[in-house]
Structures are given as structure tokens and as C-alpha cells.
Amino acid sequence: MLELEARAEPSRLMSWLSPLLAVVLTIAGGMLVFSALGKDPLEGFRIFFLNPVKDLYGLSELLLKATPLMLCAIGLAIGFRANVWNIGAEGQFMLGAVAATGVALYFDGSESALLLPAMIVAGALGGAAWAAIPALLRTRFNANEILVSLMLVYVAQLFVSWLVFGPWKDPDGFNFPQTQMFGDAALMPVLLEGTRLHLGFALALAVLVAGYAFMNRSFAGFRMRVAGEAPDAARYAGFSATRMIWIGLLLGGAAAGLAGMGEVAGPMGQLTDKVGSGYGFAAIIVAFVGRLNAFGILLASLLMALLYIGGEQAQQYLNLPSSISMVFQGMLLFFLLGSDVFINYRLRLRRRAVQGH
Amino acid sequence: MDASLFTSMLFATVVAGTPLIIVALGLLVSEKAGVLNLGAEGMMAMGAVAAFAVTHHSGSPWLGVLAGMGAGMAMALIFGMLTLTLMANQVASGLALAIFGVGLAAFVGKPYEAVALQAVPPIRIPFIADLPLIGEALYNQQALVYFSWALFWGLLWFLYRSRAGLVLRAVGESPASAHAIGYPVIRIRYLAVLFGGAMAGIGGAFLSVFYTPMWAEGMVAGRGWIALALVVFATWRPLRVMIGAYLFGGVMITQLFIQGSGLQIDFPSQLLSSLPYWATIVVLVAISRNANTIRLNSPVSLGKPYRPDA
């Protein structure tokens, strides 16, 4: 009979292999799903995983989708490392989009080169402000940040709806729930002619590097890692738990807000009630699959972006609902969590011992 | 307020509170055994869509409820295998279950989005339903409302009067001691998690088959998370779960009645709709302020994996 046996120390090899194993299992599971739905699994694989990246435009779309994911995920990872469970990135993303839109609408018609930087700052501040609520309630009143940050996602969604159905609705928009389109000065410049890939991608890469530097090269980042991996040691060393909660949530919120800004000032060009497309939740998966480190998050965000676009392709060519990408994304995280057991344990074949406690 | 308005508001409050009671009591049992399953939202969504589909095809809401229960349990089983057998992190696994369940429900439910079910008639309890003011509101209700009350009384007895309940609580307080005495900790936790999944599935079924007889993506609308918050708010006590659920039901209904009342209140409906979520936050803050209440009442091993040294 197979048994799990504890390893003397966690396997470094497995902690890298585990995400790969999870990816392979997800692809295998995905092909099973395709055949269960009566589709040719190889055709499904081709459309879902290969079609999206077959040309330069496809690749640029992949990077475009990966941009908000890596931004949200690197911010979340900083908190997760210290056991600060911000799962409201989706709401912080929306508030970042709202703040940036506010700036764009207020300075409507402005040609100033400062408009875009102002929107970037506003986006980050908007996200951070929304994340400050769970931080304050957690540090002052001990309220669980998981539940508070999550409730605020629903509040944010309703707030965005109110704005685009009410005060911010485009008067010439045929009553659609959306703001007017931003002027050129309020839009992210495109990086690659003929594609939609915009400056936000470069910004996201910069934030990834900054996140790496913070987590691996700064004392504050070190303290947060200790707090997550050895809470008793952190307490003994006198590291302030309150400060870590604030840092984790504010940085996570700022990064998510930046991502939201990048969406309204990038591919959307306006604020609509569909601004939150689940990136904030998908980023949780990205953060875990990326092992909470910057380089892993880069790879994981590309993979998750592929799953998003693959879902759209499956809708177009296989006539499947695009929500199939959420199914695959969930499967990926399940397989990862399952494979992770082999970091601390190994399988051992063992004859069943005679029962008798 | 006139009498008929009071009666209809009470009626609606009870209906709105019912799924929260069922789901939160199920989660309470899981948590009493020391397992924190944050995937309630996903289990409810799957329960809702499974119940809807089966009711639609079979014409029987009761088969639908059974299917919802089964779907919730299947989801809970995935969670159990990850956290209890493979000892994965409970918070991460619960989040995964929430994301996966909501996604899978949206995927499976796509063909049912334009379908409506026939409303299930309420069950009238003779005589007491004739009581003035409250009779119509409390005793001419959906069967699952009565089920939620039975569940409450049953759980009170189970947790505090039965030996099995004592064992369950022991497993949550100190799995090592329970194991040492010879109780199968992992098996008991599996059962508790499955019970939580079954109740979440029934809660979801209530939403899609009885409450609003239709399926729409995102229709669970955070109720799974609110139920999780309710358990904390209730400091892991069934009676307070019940009170809390009706309070939330009341908040949800009040804002709906204000929106529908034609009262010329100059307040945007979207902002009114966010009231229940704010209420959840306020209540969490109020109850968590005193760190001791939480520490003293929460099951000691909540969220911590346990592996018996065979």
C-alpha cells in the first residue's frame, strides 16, 4: 500500500517541479474534459493552447492579458508571504480603474503629458485606499482581512455600476453603462505598432523587478518572509505584525489599482461596468502557481493569460462557453496544491502493518 | 407600517435568511471539527446549478435539492482530499474551491441561462398559519425554511447533547488527544467537511429552485462568503448563526423594499444594494474587536492540518 512519508527536509527540486506537474496534469485533465464534451481532444489542445500564440499578434495579446495578472499577483504575493490574505484584489483593481477614470474625466480634453502619470498615480492610490479598509479594520479591530477584502469586491462592483449608470454615464453613449472614451493624452501609448500591447506591460515588468527587490533584497521584505515562514521567530525578534499587514495590503492594493488603471487606459479606453473581469481572483492562482516569487509569477501569468485566451478561442471555434477557462484555472490550482504535498512528503510503498494501537 | 407590509417583510426576511442559515450551520460543523473551508461560495454555486438542471429536466424540485446536495458534497470531497489526505493549506485550497466552483457552475449552467422554473408552492401548516401578523410569514413557507429550523434544533442536540457531537468538538479542539484516545480524526473531519458541502449544496439549491427559480451566473452573489462571516459573527454558536442570518436577511430585504416602495428617496439603488456587504463588515468588526471572544470561542485547531503519526 502506498503511504506518504515525511521528508527530512522540504525538497527544493519538488518545489520547482510541482508547478510543472500541475501544468501537465491540467493539460491532461483539459483534454479529458474536451473528450467528455464530445470534442476531439487533440483539436481542443491545439485550439486552446497553441492557436492563441501562433503569430506575433497572438503573442502580443497574450502579453496584454498577462499584464494585469502579473501586476495583481506580485502585489498579492508580498502579502501572502507574510500570511496576509488579501483576496480582494478584484475590488482594488476596480477602484484603481475608477480613480484613474476620475482623473481622465476631470481633465477631459487636456493634452498635457502629465495626465497619464497622474492617472497612474491615481490608480495606485485608488487601489491602495480600497485595501486600506481591510488593513485598518484588521489592525485596529482584528477583523478578518479575507472576509472584509472580499466583501469590498461586491461593494466595488456596485459602486462602479452606479458610476457608469449614473453620474459618469456617457451622455452620447446611447444609454450604455459606460463613460465616454478617453482622449489620446489619457491612453497608454502602444508599444508595438499594429497590436494592443501598451506601456502598461513595461510598467508591470518594472513592478515585478521592484517586487523582487522588495521581497528578496530589502529588510522589510525579509521581515515579512520571516513572519510568514516562522511566525514565532518574527514575534520573538519583535517585528511589528501591524506594519506587515499594512505593507502587505497597501502594496497589494496599489499594484491591483495600477492594473485596473492599465485596463481603462489601455485596451478598454473607458470605464464600463465590465471592468473587473476576474483578473483579481485569477491573480490569486497566479501568485500560488508562481511560488510567490517574481520570476515564477511572470511565467504563471503568461500561462493563465493563455488559459483566458484559450477560453475565448474555444468559444469561437469549439462552441464552448468561455467560462471553460475558469474551470481550467481552478483545476490548475487544485493540481498544484495536490502536487505540493511531495515537497514535504514522499511516496513509499509499504506493506500494511499489523493493526494494533 | 401597516400590518400587511410587516407580514410581507417578515416573510421575505425569513426567506432571505434561510440559505444563510443552512450554509452557515454546515460550515459551523466543519469548523467545529477544525476544518476551515473557504470554498462555500463555490459549493453553493455548484449546488445551485446542479439543483436547477435536475429540477428542469425531471420536473421535481426535490430531486433537484438532492442533486444540489450531491454536487456540494462532491466539491467538498475535492477539498477534503486536498486538505485532509494531501495536507494542503486549507486557506489556499478553499480559495481554489471557490474559484473553481464558481467557474464550473458558470460553465455547466450556460445552457440553462434563459430557462425559468415553475415556482414551488409553499407548505401551509394548519392552524398556526392563521395566527395574525406572523402566521402567514412564518408558517406558510417553503419546505426548506422548515428544514432550516429542524437543522438548527438537530444541530443543537447533536453538538451539545450527543456523544458523537462531543467527539466532533474534541477533534476540533485537540486532534492529537482525540487521536490518542482512538478516534479516527481524519475520517471524522472528512464527514464534517462533507456535511458542510451537503448543506452548502442545499443552500445553493434553495437559491436557484425556490428563491428565484432561475439560474444566472453569479447569482450566489457572495452569500457563501457572508455565511463564512456569519460563523465568526456567531462565535461558533448555532443560535447566534440563526439570529445573524435573519439580521442579514432583514438588511437585504429592507434595501429591496426601499428600492421597490416608490418612496421618493434620492439614493441610488446600486449603493443601497451594497448595504448587506457593508453590514457584514460592520458586524465582523463589532464581534472581532475583542480578540479574546474570538480566541476563546474558535475551535483551537481551526485551519491547522493534522497528520496522525500512524
Description:
The complex is a heterodimer of chains A (357) and B (310). With 357 residues, chain A is mostly helical. Chain A has one domain (2-349): ABC transporter involved in vitamin B12 uptake, BtuC (Orthogonal Bundle). Chain A is 69% helix and 3% strand. Chain A is built from 14 helices and two strands, in the order E-H-H-H-H-H-H-H-H-H-H-H-H-H-H-E. Chain A has helices at 12-36, 41-50, 56-81, 89-106, 115-141, 145-165, 199-217, 219-229, 231-236, 241-268, 279-289, 294-317, 324-339, 341-344; strands spanning 2-6, 345-349. In chain A, strands 1-2 form a two-stranded antiparallel ribbon. The model of chain A has no long low-confidence stretch (mean pLDDT 90). With 310 residues, chain B is mostly helical. Chain B has a single domain, classed as ABC transporter involved in vitamin B12 uptake, BtuC (Orthogonal Bundle). In chain B, 72% of the residues lie in helices and 1% in strands. Chain B has 14 helices and two strands. In chain B, strands 1-2 form a two-stranded antiparallel sheet. In chain B, helix 2 runs parallel beside helix 4 (90-109) and helix 11 (238-260) runs antiparallel to helix 13 (275-288). In chain B, 50% of the residues are buried. Classes of the chains: A mainly alpha (357), B mainly alpha (310). Chains A and B meet through helix 5, helix 6, helix 11 and helix 13 of A and helix 3, helix 4, helix 10, helix 12 and helix 13 of B.
- Biggest sheet, spatial arrangement of strands of chain B: 1-2
What is the mean pLDDT of chain A?
A: 90
Number of strands of chain B: 2
Total number of beta strands of chain A: 2
Task: Please sum up the structure shown.
Chain A: This is Sugar ABC transporter permease. The complex is a heterodimer of chains A (357) and B (310). Chain A is mainly α.
Describe this protein with a few key phrases.
heterodimer, A: 357 residues, mainly alpha, ABC transporter involved in vitamin B12 uptake, BtuC, two-stranded antiparallel sheet, 14 helices, 2 strands, B: 310 residues, globular
